[in-house]
Automatic annotation (TrEMBL):
Annotated compartments: Membrane
Protein name per UniProt: PIRT protein
Main location (coarse class): membrane
Signal peptide: none
One GO MF term attached to the UniProt entry: phosphatidylinositol bisphosphate binding
Membrane topology annotation: Multi-pass membrane protein
Keywords of the record: Membrane, Transmembrane, Transmembrane helix
GO cellular component: plasma membrane
InterPro entries in UniProt: PIRT
PANTHER family for this protein: PHOSPHOINOSITIDE-INTERACTING PROTEIN, PHOSPHOINOSITIDE-INTERACTING PROTEIN FAMILY MEMBER
One Pfam family it belongs to: PIRT
Transmembrane segments: 54-77, 89-109
Length: 132
C-alpha cells in the first residue's frame, strides 16, 4: 500500500494543503506587476525618465562612428584589409540598430508620460466627485 508523502519535519501527512492555505503567491504576483512610478506620486526629473534611451543612443552613435572608422581604414591601410572589411560593417550595423532603437524609444516614453498625466488627472477628478 502506498504511504502519503510527509513533510521534511514529519509533522504533516499532506504538505500541499498547508502550502495552499498559507501561500501568498497572489499578493506577490500583484505586487511584482505594479510599477513603482505608477503608484508613487513623486515627480521624476527628465534625466530619470530619459536616461536609458539617451544611453542607448549614445552607445549606438559611438559604435556607428567606430564602424565608420574601421571601414574607412580598410581603404587607407592595405594590411589586414580583410579584418577591417569584416569588422567595419558589423559595427556599422550594430551602431545603427542601437541608434534607431534609442531614437524610437524616446517618443514612446513621451506618449506614456502623457497617458500617465491624463490618468492621474482622471483619478483626481473621480476621487473629487465620488468622495464627497
Amino acid at each position: 500500500m502506498e504511504i502519503p508523502p510527509k513533510s521534511p519535519d514529519g509533522s504533516e501527512k499532506f504538505p500541499q494543503s498547508r502550502e495552499l492555505i498559507t501561500s501568498n503567491t497572489g499578493s506577490t504576483l500583484c505586487m511584482s506587476s505594479r510599477s513603482e512610478s505608477v503608484w508613487t506620486s513623486t515627480s521624476r526629473s527628465k534625466w530619470e525618465i530619459y536616461h536609458k534611451p539617451v544611453i542607448v543612443v549614445s552607445v549606438g552613435a559611438a559604435t556607428f562612428l567606430f564602424g565608420t572608422v574601421i571601414t574607412s581604414l580598410s581603404w587607407v591601410l592595405p594590411n589586414n584589409e580583410k579584418v577591417y572589411k569584416m569588422c567595419g560593417p558589423a559595427f556599422l550595423s550594430l551602431g545603427l540598430m542601437l541608434l534607431v532603437c534609442g531614437l524610437v524609444w524616446i517618443p514612446i516614453i513621451r506618449k506614456k508620460q502623457k497617458q500617465r498625466q491624463k490618468s492621474q488627472f482622471l483619478q483626481s477628478l473621480k476621487s473629487f466627485f465620488f468622495n464627497r
